[in-house]
Amino acid sequence: MPKWLNDAVFYEIYPQSFYDSNGDGIGDINGIIEKLDYVKGLGCNAIWLNPIYDSPFMDAGYDVRDYKKVAPRYGTNDDLVNLFNKAHEMGIKILLDLVPGHTSDTHPWFLEAKKAKESEFSNRYVFTKSVWDAPPQYRMMCGICERDGNYLVNYFSSQPALNYGFNEITHHEWQLPPEHPDCVATVEAIKDVMRFWLDKGADGFRVDMADSLVKNDDEKVATAKIWRGVREMLDKEYPEAAMVSEWCNPERAINNAGFHMDFYLDHYGNGYSRLFRYGDPRSSEAVFNPNGKGDVKAFADEYLPNYESTKNNGYISFMTNNHDMPRVTAGLDKNAIKLISAFIFTMPGVPFLYYGDEIGMKYQANLVSKEGGFSRTGSRTPMQWNSQKNLGFSTGDEPYLPVDKSDDAPTVENQKDDADSIYKVVTDVIALRHKYDDLKGNGELEFVYEEGKIPFYYKRGNLVMFFNPLGKDAEISTEYNGKVVYQIGGAEFADGKVEMKPQSFVMIEL
Ligand code: GLC
Ligand code: CA
């Protein structure tokens, strides 16, 4: 287990929207290099970089055309190596985004695979034996290749699924078992990509759709086995490298598959989503909604057993948001977002901050979809730096996506010195996380709540965090009392209880 993860705080950078260093309207790698000081200033010591590979950008780069080449619009491989080096000098780690489940339909492997002529790539993707065969339970593209067969897609139609085999063979003519040499070759090809970037200085990977490899694998046993193998390779060859999975099943991802971290995603109705994410941030069941009527139990009942069973093997990762979900500003007010930040950066695991969330960037509803973003486009708009042209994102006349045009658009410049800003809370709480060992990734957790109530608290070592997300006063009974380390809103300690102001947070040291 790489030691650095225990004190890691990640910043997710969506490269096309971060900072444009050459005025062509698209963010780039040199732009990220210029802003490393900013990242460091937030207290983040690690970066997750969304895909930077060559791509036709039908899905923002998750449709990879060449795994080993930086997309020219972002720069060159040398620029990326330069970013690794500069980041390392500043104590910042960088994870690239690994997309193992599919490629672009313009990837050379696929261009070979779709030919009638057989080649070493004929089984790199999942093809049926004839175009007349298209079982409805699989999402297939039909009748469009020279080859007599249909192929399986993993996400959008432009993303053919790479072939890792089928755990349960239901159609003998074309399904291969995961042990088939051609499926093993797919695994080896992905490991080769990993080694390529790790050798150049990458610190690991965020793994896209990590659970999607082997098909007909309901319990994900065969998929987990592949990742175990990858983890063994890392332990042996790159022991400091880390992997975080887009999976949202910590027991499978961490305990079975060997990921160091697993994201707690916004799956509708799950514990995380019930706290403050989409599907329901505005609904009265969301815990951090000031008008909330639900309770924190839905979260705790799901999170705590997962936390307990994985805490010795890896970390569950909370995130303020990511590039796939509406920014939290779409559904909650500033005070609620401050409390959420206090929560995310004081819980166990390895937290992730999505670019722009530290200044409360707004979700831009109704934008025309860009690069396969669709409703996600509104969370992917250019970073807002200052009051200059395009809010400092680009000197070009037309950024590839419009910047927030509203008069009250938050920027780093106008938030940074504002004592009442989200930025202040985010940076303060991250600083406390680094300061106190009790707040580190693997520090202990005792989560205390009462059924049917929203206010709650948790204890981590000598620190206790109390939350009242409600828009009215609330009382939490507790035996704890101590020195106030940090607060939002306000709270008074009395015998056996703490009286909390509306939408408040207080951290005490015993
Ligand atoms: C993941 C990514 C998402 C992408 C999809 C297909 O969910 O986060 O942005 O569209 O996988 O690769
Ligand atoms: Ca640029």
Q: What's the SSE blueprint?
A:
Layout: E1 10-13, H1 29-34, H2 36-42, E2 46-49, E3 53-54, E4 66-70, H3 77-89, E5 93-98, H4 108-113, E6 140-141, E7 151-152, H5 181-200, E8 204-207, H6 221-237, E9 242-245, H7 250-256, E10 261-263, H8 271-276, H9 297-310, E11 315-317, H10 334-344, E12 352-354, H11 412-416, H12 422-435, E13 446-448, E14 456-460, E15 463-468, E16 474-477, E17 483-488, E18 491-494, E19 497-500, E20 504-509
Parallel strand pairs: 1-2, 1-12, 2-5, 5-8, 8-9, 9-10, 10-11
Antiparallel strand pairs: 3-4, 6-7, 13-14, 14-15, 15-20, 16-19, 17-20, 18-19
Helix pairs in contact: 7-9, 10-12
This protein binds alpha-D-glucopyranose and calcium ion.
The site of calcium ion has 6 residues, from loops.
Count of separate structural domains: 3
Radius of gyration: 23 Å
Count of alpha/pi helices: 12
The side-by-side strand order for the widest beta sheet comes to 11-10-9-8-5-2-1-12
Structural class: alpha/beta
Parts with pLDDT < 50 across at least 5 consecutive residues: none
Largest sheet, if any? 8 strands, parallel
The tally of strands reads: 20
The averaged pLDDT comes out at: 96
CATH topology group of the largest domain: TIM Barrel
Write up what this structure looks like.
There is one protein chain. With 510 residues, the chain is α/β, with parallel strands linked by helices. The chain has three domains: 3-101 and 183-437, TIM Barrel, CATH 3.20.20.80; 102-163, Oligo-1,6-glucosidase, domain 2; 445-509, Sandwich (Immunoglobulin-like), CATH 2.60.40.1180. Helices cover 25% and strands 16% of the residues. The strands form five sheets. The chain has an eight-stranded parallel β-sheet with strand order 11-10-9-8-5-2-1-12, with helices on one face. Strands 13-14-15-20-17 form a five-stranded antiparallel β-sheet, with helices on one face. Strands 16-19-18 form a three-stranded antiparallel β-sheet, with no helix packed on it. Strand 8, helix 6 (221-237) and strand 9 form a beta-alpha-beta unit. Helix 7 packs parallel to helix 9 (297-310) and helix 10 (334-344) runs parallel beside helix 12. Bound molecules: alpha-D-glucopyranose (GLC) and calcium ion. Residues 20-22, 24, 26, 28 line the site of calcium ion (CA). Alpha-D-glucopyranose (GLC) is lined by residues 59, 62, 99, 155, 208-209, 246, 323-324.
